[in-house]
Amino acid sequence: MSTPILKLRNICKSFGPIDVLQDISLDICPGEVLCLLGDNGAGKSTLIKTLSGVYRPNSGTIEMDGRPIEFTGPRDASNRGIATVHQFGGTFPLMSIGRSFFIGVEPTKGWGPFKIFDRKKANEIAVKAVRDFGITRIEDGDRLVGGLSGGERQSLAIARAVHFGAKVLILDEPTAALGVKQATHVLRIVNEAKRRGLAVVFITHQVMHAMAVGDHFAVLIRGAVAADFRKGEKTREEITDLMAGGETMAELEAQIDGYMATHDGHAPQHAGASA
Amino acid sequence: MNSKTASQPIVVANAPASSSATRFSIGGLFRRPEAGAFLGLFGVFVFFIAFGSIDFLKPAGAASWLNVAANLGIVAFPIGLLMIAGELDISIGSMIPAGSMTVAIISGYYGLPIWLGIAATLGLGVVVGLVNGFLVVRTNVPSLIVTLGTLFAVAGLVLGLSVLLTGTTSVALKAPELAKFLFGQFVANTFQVIIFWWLALTAIYIYVIHYSPYGNWIFAMGGDKISARNAGIPTSRLTIVLFVLSATSAAFVGMCQAILFNSAQVSAGMSFIFNSIISVVVGGVLLTGGFGSIVGIFFGTITFAVVNQGIYFTTFDRNWSSLIIGVMLLLAVLMNNTFRSMALSYSPKKK
Ligand SMILES: Nc1ncnc2c1ncn2[C@@H]1O[C@H](COP(=O)(O)OP(=O)(O)OP(=O)(O)O)[C@@H](O)[C@H]1O
Ligand SMILES: [Mg+2]
User: How does it sit in the membrane (chain B) (predicted)?
Assistant: First the structure.
């Protein structure tokens, strides 16, 4: 295990009276994939937002390369080489592929105060990045993002992060909207990023995806780190149980079976029934 | 423009297949945000030439709608940018008389130097813009409501202060030669000098919005504010800057009117609210943000001004002009919607 590029110590974050993150301490190492697992609402997205400069923690410290830092904002984090694909959004339907790829980091040509946006260069780089990603239907960087499918947009967002992620790549449920082929491709990208020495933080609800790329796993339950282990230290069943928020899968299945038995084989009508 | 296009092939000579980047096509024109505005303008010209007379294209006739377009256009640009960014500013309705009255009271009533009056007018614009911007950014109250509040607050303030200080609601202003030359002369006896300000501002806005990197930020912000912030765009600062721009532009227009007509009235400007919104929407800006263009707003403003003034060149009763404006607005919006969905579904043909 190499020296961590990011070290979180006792990170707490609350929104008003709601404590979302409690005492999170984690190490994120270059050349490794950290899989962040946990139930809906466990605090995964909130945690990576403190790493990408969107939120400031209420207490606790973040160290980068051994020095304590405080991100002044998302731009600061991305300038330090942390690129994030957030769970929702990240694409701009009425903008062109080339323009949306470079939002905030527009390439320019020209001199002095008369620099102009280099549309040709932006389009070329963006189209190439997406095509490298396996989306070969995209040929024209002037196309509007809104005309792409959900998965294609997701791929565009990931391609963007990979392009700009110099040191740390954070992916919040990147495979959620993707087809089997594209999801596999994301996993390949993650492995490739790892091989190139990037630190990757990968959030997913799919055990298979987590097991396929993860070197290091952290499970959040109600905002606290419930388990922190390395590849091979836990079985797939144990991981699944932790991801379900601590309840064992067997228990959940028993609940469903019991319900089916008492309700003539009908599945529960609404989510609340099993709560 | 032409020389740039000519030099482009050299730049790309060694670049990998950039299939359609430089290809010119009619279809490409229709996918641009200003396509609807351009056709609308064309239609309006044809309409008034058919039903009116060619007179409204001759200098005297053109001046009538160019003067309207210039005054409106200077305000319509920042209003359009705010709309692209997902905000509205209706306080311009009282910022125009506020601008007129400020310069007239300071330099007319009190007789202080005109430059002081001008500085105070623009300063007032900056202050009101800052108030609007900070309120919108800090409170997350929709900007329509915030600026509705400042619309009335500023109107009340201007009326109250005018009566308190001067005892009247109409103040005369005799501006010195240079100020008159720059802000308030009739060129060739008919064209207000503000037309040149408008044309110069058009060029500056086109550069900043469509060529400099900052334009991208405004579109991103209107498309998805949270994602734009996550991508590192200073959305709050940009919002405040846009509100300052619109309030200051409105104050500037009011000031030019006062210098031009040698007097200022407390109530003159409410019509600018709707007129600028119509110009911007006819110009192809999406009311919900994220889409539009400066050239579109430019055409939209001229279209509005021509309809507004063109009626005088026809035999129609001028009471019909609102009907024409309403129908034109609906047609333009429908057309813009069609073109926008064409742009969205566009993908290049396989070769
Ligand atoms: N801005 C906010 N204000 C108040 N509460 C918030 C805010 N953001 C998140 N929360 C709360 O924090 C908790 C954790 O949210 P978070 O989005 O981090 O969950 P998550 O682990 O990413 O879940 P999912 O798997 O559904 O994406 C939730 O209970 C949510 O209601
Ligand atoms: Mg989440």
Answer: Multi-pass membrane protein
In order of B49, B52, B189, B194, the CA distances from B306 in angstroms are: 11, 12, 20, 17
- Taking only the tens place, the pLDDT of each residue in A238-266 is 888 888 766 665 666 666 666 666 666 55
| CATH architecture for the domain at A6-93+166-244 | 3-Layer(aba) Sandwich (3.40)
Say how many Å lie between the CA of residue A112 and the centre of ligand 1. 44
Inter-chain contact B213–A139, Cβ cutoff 8 Å? no
* End-to-end Cα separation, chain A, in angstroms: 40
**Ligand 2 centroid to residue A100 C-alpha, Å:** 23
Q: What is the pTM of this model?
A: 0.85
Query: For residue B162, what are the domain limits?
Result: 36-339
With respect to residue B261, please indicate whether it lies within any of the assigned structural domains: yes
Residue A26: pLDDT over 50: yes
pLDDT score for B45: 87
Q: Do B230 and A93 touch (CB under 8 A)?
A: no
Where do the domains of chain A lie?
A: 6-93+166-244, 246-275
Model ipTM value: 0.78
Q: Looking at ligand 1, which atom is closest to the CA of residue A46?
A: 18
Structural element, H or E, at residue A241? helix A236-243
Q: In angstroms, what separates the C-alpha of B93 from chain A's closest C-alpha? A: 30
Beta-carbon contacts of A265 under 8 Å, excluding residues fewer than 6 positions away, are none
Q: Verify whether the Cβ–Cβ distance B290 to A147 is below 8 Å.
A: no
